[in-house]
Amino acid sequence: ELKVEQNPLFLSMQEGKNYTIYCNYSTTSDRLYWYRQDPGKSLESLFVLLSNGAVKQEGRLMASLDTKARLSTLHITAAVHDLSATYFCAVAGAQKLVFGQGTRLTINP
Amino acid sequence: SAVISQKPSRDICQRGTSLTIQCQVDSQVTMMFWYRQQPGQSLTLIATANQGSEATYESGFVIDKFPISRPNLTFSTLTVSNMSPEDSSIYLCSVHDRDSHLANYGYTFGSGTRLTVV
Description:
The complex is a heterodimer. By secondary structure, chain A is mainly β.
């Protein structure tokens, strides 16, 4: 059974700092997704990672995938308040997504 | 990518009643998914809805409680039956579609239905 674990689950950081969210998964998969969710809202797609070594960047967010280690990272550079949200990774297995627990990110001025 | 219209966006329901949630997609998609997100929690897959066949339910979810219809390739409904306060959650539909511009297979989500059972 595919399991996806994120850490940390809660992250409070100062503006301007860098940090990384980790996503580990238990079985082989070649597709990993990162989503953002604002309070009371649906999920917004951030990145789709399709192969080992894939790296994608959008603004202050960069995601990478290591399929051998079954690990993805979401790196935040020089955080700003607007990035406060809950971030989910999700792994595709048997044509369905399994989600991590989510990381609630709070960025303080 | 596909655009999903989900309704209602929120509802407050009495225990023992049922609520039907609708999702309309602007393109034909093979697979539609229904998720539940309990307060402060992650998303849990309820079932996969395929056109022309019965939905496939995940462990812990049963058809009598969450009947699903999928009459065509652009529409699906999820009913939450005989509701109790424990059913208070956000329910989201999702489709697996291809973003032809980026050549990525992605999953797009509806806006969600926030259900409160009193």
